[in-house]
C-alpha cells in the first residue's frame, strides 16, 4: 500500500477550527452535535474526516461553509480561514467566501446540479456571481476547467443538461464548478459514495491531480476506510460529535490508538475471500438461461430494446451463498427481481426445488412464494411505516394460514434471534435505526421459513460496523436454517466476506462465474480485474492493521 | 422509546388533522363558522320561523319586518327560512358529491395505478371525461332526466372523478414501487389485501384535502347550475335557486341574492380554509417520511 507521506508542518494553515461546538437549541436539553472539535487543514493537504452516520462529519463541513440548518447553532469555538474568523461574518460575506475561497462538492451530483440549465452555463454562473470577468473570458475559463477535469468532448458537454451526462461526468462538472475560482479549500462530502468503484477510482485520482496542480487544501468526508487509505494525508476519526483520534494516515491505520478507531477498522470487510462451504448434491435454486429484455414493444415501430440480463445460468444449493457482483446497470438487480418474480423474465427457467416458476401466473406462484424471500437495500422503506413491527412480521404467515397467536409467538422468538427486544413488536419502524430495521426485514423474511433468501444490496445502506453485524446475522441464520442466499452487491469486500460462489455481471451478461476464492484472488476476466483494482485500499488489511499479503493474479486470458 | 403508540396507524393523519389546538386562528374561525352553518341548517326545520314555501302575496318584497327578520321575496316567502332550509340541500349535494367522487375515484384510481393493462384504458376514459365541461354535462343530464337532486349530484360528480382518479393513481404508482409493497408481494399477500392495507392508507391524506375542495366546489357548482336553471327544481329551495329567482328583482331588492350569497360564500370560504389547514398539517408529515 502506497500511503501519502508528505509533511505539511511547514505549509500555511488554511483552515483551523478550534473547540468548535454546535448544538441543537430547539431540542430539549440543548444537546451538542459537535462537542468542541479541533481540526487543522494546511495548504495542499488532504484531510479525511471519517465516522459513521450521526458522527457529525457533515455538520462540521456545513459549519465551515456557514450553511448549518436553522435547527443547529454554533455555540462556541472559532473557525478561521487563512486567519480570518468566519463565525462573525454575515450571510452576505459568507456568500462571497463560498465558491471564491471555500468550495464544496456533494454526494449526489444529480441533485446538486440544476436540471434545467446547461452545465456550461452553471459553471459560468459561478464566475458571474463572484468575478467581473467578461462573458468570453468566463466561457474560456469554463472550457479550460472542463478540460482540466478530463471531460471528453468538452464543447458538447458544455451544452448538455445534467441528465444527459453519466454520474461520473456530473461529478466532474461539480468539481469543475468548485475549482473554477481556485478556492483555497475544497470540501468534498462523500463525493464518490453514489458512484461505481471504477468511476470512484477516476474521481479520486482527479481530485488528487487537481489538488497537486492548484495546491488546494481538501477536507474529504467519507465513511469508507478504503477511500481514506487511498487519498488521505491526515485522518480525523469522529464519533458522536467528538474527534476520537487524528493522525497521519499510515500511523493511524498501522497503530490506531482509540478503541473506536480499532473497532471501525476491524469492521471493514476483508477482501480475502471466505472459505467456501461444501456444495450439496442437489440445488435448491437453479436458474437456466434467464433473459430479461426491456422495451421492444410499440405498435407502429419497434421501440429500442435493453437487454438487462442475458443468458444468466447458475445453481445454488442449501446453506450456500451466491454473490452477484457488478456496477450499476450491470443487471444484477434485474436477475434478483426476476428470481423473486417481481418482474417477469423474458425467457429462461427458474427452478425452485425442481418446479419452474419463471412462467407461473400470480395465483399459481403463491404456494412457491413462501420458499423464496427477499431483503431490500433501503431499510427505511422496506417496512410499511404505518404498521407495527409485529403486524409486518406476521403478514406472511397469516397469508399462509398460520393463526395470529402462533405467528405472533414466532415473531417474538425471532426478535430474540435477530437481537431485538420482544417489545419491539408493538413499535413502529421509525423508532428503530437503519441496522435494526434491516434485522427486522430479515426476521420478516425468515418468518416464512424460506429455502432461498434474495438479499438485494441488503447491507449497502449501512455503516460498516452495522454492516458487519447484519452479515453475521445472515451467516448465523444460514448455519441454523440451511437457507441458500443470493447476495446482490456492488461491494467486493462484502462479497468476499460471505459468498461461496461469485457471479460477475457487466451490461447484463455474466462475465465471470466461479468459487469466490478463485474469482476474487485470481480474476480471469479483465472487467473483474478492473473491479478489484478499483476497490479502494485493496492492498491494505484494515482488520489486522497491516498490508495485505501479496495477491497473485492470473495471467490475462 | 418505551412508550407504545396507539395502534390506529391508518387513522393517524385524520386524528392529527382533528387535533384542533394545532390549528391557526384563521382555521379555528373557519371551523366555528362552518359548525354554526351546519348546525343551523340541520336544525332548520325547528329554527325556521315560517314554511319556506308558504306564499303571502300581501307581504311581497318586504324589508326586515316583524316575523321576517330578513324580509320576504317576490312571493312573500320568508327569506330567512328559505336560506336556512336551502342550506340543507346545498350541503347534502356538496357532501354527497365529495363522498361519491372520492370513493369512486379511489377505487378506479387504485385499479389504474396498480394494474398496468387497466391503466391505459381507464386513464384515456378519464381524459375524455375531463374534456367535458361540467356545466354542459349538467345541463345535458338535467335535460335528459329532469331537474332532480340525483341528476345534479351525478352532473357534479362525474367531472370530479377524473381529478380524484389522477391523484390516487399518482400516489399508488409511487407507493407500489416501495420495497415494503414488493416485500408484501414476496410474502404472498393477495393483491386485494395489498391494495387495501398497504396502498389505501397512503391516499388518505391527499384525499382528505381533495375531498374538502370538492365539497366546496360542488356547493358552488350546484348554485351555478340552479342559477342557470339547470339545477334542482325551484320548489325545493337551495342557495343557488334562491339566488336564481332573486336575480329578477335584484335592482329592487338585492337582499334576495345577498343573504343566500353570504351563506354560500361563508360556507365555501370556511371549507376551503379548513382544506388548506388540513393540507398544511398533513404535508410536513409526508415530507418527513420522504426525507
From TrEMBL, chain B:
Q: Which terms are listed as keywords in the entry?
A: Cell membrane, Membrane, Transmembrane, Transmembrane helix, Transport
What is one Pfam family matched by this protein? BPD_transp_1
What InterPro entries does the record tag this protein with? BP-dependent_transpt_permease (IPR050366), MetI-like (IPR000515), MetI-like_sf (IPR035906), OppC_N (IPR025966)
- Tell me the ranges covered by the ABC transmembrane type-1 domain, including all copies: 91-275
**Per its UniProt record, what CDD domains does this chain match?**
TM_PBP2
Checking SUPFAM superfamilies in the record gives: MetI-like
Q: How does it sit in the membrane?
A: Multi-pass membrane protein
> What is the protein's given name?
ABC transporter permease
Instruction: Give the main localization category.
Output: membrane
- Reading the lineage from the top rank, the first entry is Bacteria
GO annotations under biological process? transmembrane transport
UniProt xrefs under Gene3D superfamilies: MetI-like (1.10.3720.10)
What's this protein's family per the entry? Answer: Belongs to the binding-protein-dependent transport system permease family.
Transmembrane stretches in the record are 29-48, 91-115, 135-158, 256-275
The subcellular location is: Cell membrane
- Write down the species: Paracoccus haeundaensis
Q: Name one GO cellular component term.
A: plasma membrane
